[in-house]
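Lab meeting minutes (informal)
Scribe: AK
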Amino acid sequence: MNAISNAPKLHDCRDAFAATLERLGAENGRVVAVCNDSVGSSKLGGFKSQFPDRLINVGIAEQNMVGVGAGLANGGLLPFVCAAACFLTGRSLEQVKADIAYSNANVKLVGISSGMAYGELGPTHHSIEDFAWTRVLPNLPVIAPCDSIETAAAVEWAATFDGPVFLRLSRVGVPDLLPKDHVFQPGKADLLRDGDAVTLIANGTLTHRMVKAAEILAGEGIEARVLNMATVRPIDVEAVVAAVKDTGAILTAEEHSTYGGLGSAIAEVVVAEAPAPMKILGVPGIFAPTGSAEFLLDEFGMSPAAVAEAAKALIARKSGRG
């Protein structure tokens, strides 16, 4: 059997989001969708067909869109506000801060095509600052599911949570990693693989790359722990501290700047609770260039093989050999 037939099936997490939203819409008449002329890219076509009176398309007016979402929530509805992550966060940050987080509005913000998923459209469309911008806001859980199963579970949880949520979804296909009966728990990491040599932590599109890196390391007799840290805020402090105590070193990777994102959130815990060698992989504080998401992740040292090499260097540091 060839490598292509052995390759795992890849899933667009937007499909899981759309299917879950449509089911929630059928179960709850309060569920509405708001978008910025992004019915197609947000995969809201099915929702529009089923509930034409419950889809509000404000056009290319993201700041207004967030305000409309807040108004709908204040009126007792349950709005899912969907837009490209780069515009939902960057262009609307003041409204997200004041109308959503400060007001503790029951609005679900859904950042579509996050990270470098719009790769060929270049730096204006990369969303590699959104963790940093959103995780500093009180009242706002920040979540980046690793696969379609976790996406559906996170959307279900968000619908039951009384307060704002930021869901970060990519359009880049990823394999399913979690069991089909997975129940999303905010602020809780998922142990995907255990080990005692080093801990690899990621979320979103990077999690499956960490699993592959751990498999490469296992082939060399190095057992790495892999954690899926879908919730950037609140961070799972217990899992991070346990990882340091059990493995002595932490390597993170994210489709985001190395400043202010998942790695920074974990480093804050490590410094305060359990100092240990650590390395953060991501976009190194620059505007990422044009190119496909897969190419850019590899270019910034986040291919599975490169992650494995970074892990070995970190292990050497831990052992005093680096």
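Next up, CB showed the second protein from the same session:
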Amino acid sequence: MQTIPPSLADKETAFVTGGASGIGRATVLRLAEDGFRVVVIDRNAAQVDALVAALAQAGHEAVGHAVDVCDRSKISALINAETRVDVMICAAGIGPSRAFDDITDEDLRAVLEVNVLGVFISCQEAVRRMKPGGRVVTVSSRAALGAAGFAHYVASKAAVVGLTRAMAMELRRRQIAVNSIAPGFTDTGMTRAMTPEQHAAASALEPSGRPAAPEEIANAIAFLASPRTSFITGQTLFVDGGKSLGGLGL
């Protein structure tokens, strides 16, 4: 039997913050392939425009907005401009490396603003429009378990895990699923900013000897973004090649 493509009105809409690069970009591409109408949200206007143009050329439905996730009025406006709000993916984040003794108040505030407040704003504005069956996926980090060299980032990602669980508890009776993906060391612009020596050392600590590809993280995000997994809620899925298991290994 031939499958009839859904009309635009029937096509689910997924919003992806930080969607123009790294894990966010890989997620946008995967969700578009899965049949979603995708709304790309990112501060980098040139990257947003290039990605949306590429998606359109490939026959996918997508729009883009060059917006800071901490700008509530703009986030609210772009969400309310859409006919449907089915999925919110929060992939925007920053994670500068800094020794604990060197982290300033301003460093901490900057990371918490993007990584926690940005997630809070995006999720809150999205769920106000979501109907039963909606899904939220935050991107936390394996670093939420603790790591040296960027305590402010660790604190922010631990907060994302806690916020995810709290949202899931409040929204479960509305049948909105809220989960988190916690990537391990991943090949993104953030990690490529490391020196070659730092990158090699971090890769050597991975069970596979390499960082994850953004597409590998995007596949996990797509799993939780699917309506077929909407009975899963309040969970944090570690996608780190097994490093979070700890132990000495064999």
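CB comment: The helical segments are 22-33, 45-57, 72-80, 105-127, 151-171, 189-192, 196-204, 214-225.
No objections, moving on.
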